[in-house]
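Our consortium's second objective concerns turning raw sequence data into structural hypotheses that experimental partners can test. To show how far this objective has progressed, the report includes one record in full. It was chosen at random from the queue rather than selected for favorable results. The single chain below, 196 residues long, was entered without modification.
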Amino acid sequence: MPEASVLRGRVVRLEPLSLDHVPALVAAANEGRATYDFTLVPDQTDTMAAYVALALDEQQTGRTVPYATFERDRVVGSTRFLDLEYWQSASVPSVAEIGSTWLAASAQRTGVNTEAKYLMLSHAFETWQVHRVTFKTDARNERSRRAIERIGAQFEGVRRGHRLATDGTIRDSAYYSIVASEWPDVKQRLRARLDD
């Protein structure tokens, strides 16, 4: 099972998620709910505590590594590695998905997501030395799809009738990935975006 460590950037810090983050996560989630059409983002203390507790339970099984997302010293959301696959080692994943990402309204379209993804991709490819990082989103979520494409992930296709969506409908999921051989170019492009 991989260790959760703090991932630090210039503006963004990803801290291993804990129940201590719940009050700040609730405040972030309530900044503006209109952008959460396709993402489960609890807005009450009890439901956020359950959300965090579930993520921590999944972490104990080696399936996820969840984080609280900070912009400087303020919690602005959450993200995680999930669906970890272990091909060669029980402690270091070979494949990871980045997902369950949400940001407070004030942190959206600010570069926070780009820096957070840069930190996570760097950790996955350079520390864990994974072979592949995947992303998936509701196929109707154009905003998320554009963000994933801007990161440099390649569109793989749509899995039809994949799962229950947050609105109760059956959703199609758009799949994307970055493989290890692509990481140097993706890293360079992300660094250039962050340096602008």
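The partners drew two points from this record. The helical segments are 22-29, 45-60, 112-127, 142-151, 183-195. DSSP finds five helices and eight strands in the chain. Both points have been shared with the crystallography group to help prioritize constructs.
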